[in-house]
User: Fold this.
Amino acid sequence: MTNKYQDKFGCPAERTKGKVKPTMAAWIQDFIRHSPFCVLATSSANGDCDASPKGGRPGFVKVLNAKQLFIPDVAGNKLFHGYGNIESNPKAGLVFFIPGHNSTVRVNGKVRVIDKSELPHVQLEVHNADEKAEILQGLLLDVDEAYSHCPRALKFSRLWDVDEITKHAAKPPLGVKEPGI
Assistant:
């Protein structure tokens, strides 16, 4: 089944289509175990979207098996937009990053909120924890599809380029800093 954009611009190569799997291959599980950062995307039944960054020590997202991930919810800004979306639409997507590595891993599936009382034995795994850092709850994701994403966007953006990082660290490109950040 194609959509109008594939009709207009073409369909992916068979090799590309073939990499989308209903389970996490061993190398994808390993990538996630080495990833200190991901973005969780959700949308409500009304289509309201949220993309929430999640971070911690490499492997803070737990690979339970080839079909399940556990994502701890560490106390943050208390907006809970993604969790509000999950109440009406349990579908979510994750993209995992490893600093300096141009490939990413994408995992999509159905999530459910795990209350703190139901949490498996997990510990807080973050760098530079402050007095507010604690695990409040978590998400259990049942995998629908998992695959690697080509490195073009990261190459195009020079996201991991050391010269760019050094330049921005020395002189941040942002003119105004938001209060409280």
